[in-house]
Amino acid sequence: MIELLLDDRCTQCNRCVDVCPTNVFDARPDGPPLIARQADCQTCFMCELYCRDDALFVATDCEHVTGIDAATVLEAGWLGDFRRDSGWDEWKDDPRYANEHWRMDEIFMRARALVSP
Fold it and tell me: Which residues form the 4Fe-4S ferredoxin-type domain (predicted)?
């Protein structure tokens, strides 16, 4: 679930607002987008994939808010991990970051269990 939008890293491009399939964010004319409907987040990671500024953090728990803080995420170096590990965009030609979306299996399996009879 979307956990953080770091205002100081955000360039207000609003890509996260545009790509979110469940309209979690609200654009603001005078600042970074707001996480307005966190509970609607489907943990699809689209916002994190499209954020070239690594200003967003999506936690892998798709059902609960973890309450993780920015200091912990920054210290762990987690900002932008999913984008790099998926080989997305500017990382696609860097052999250090080949597509490793398989690391998301736990989330995909959990989502599948929720919709399976």
Answer: 1-30
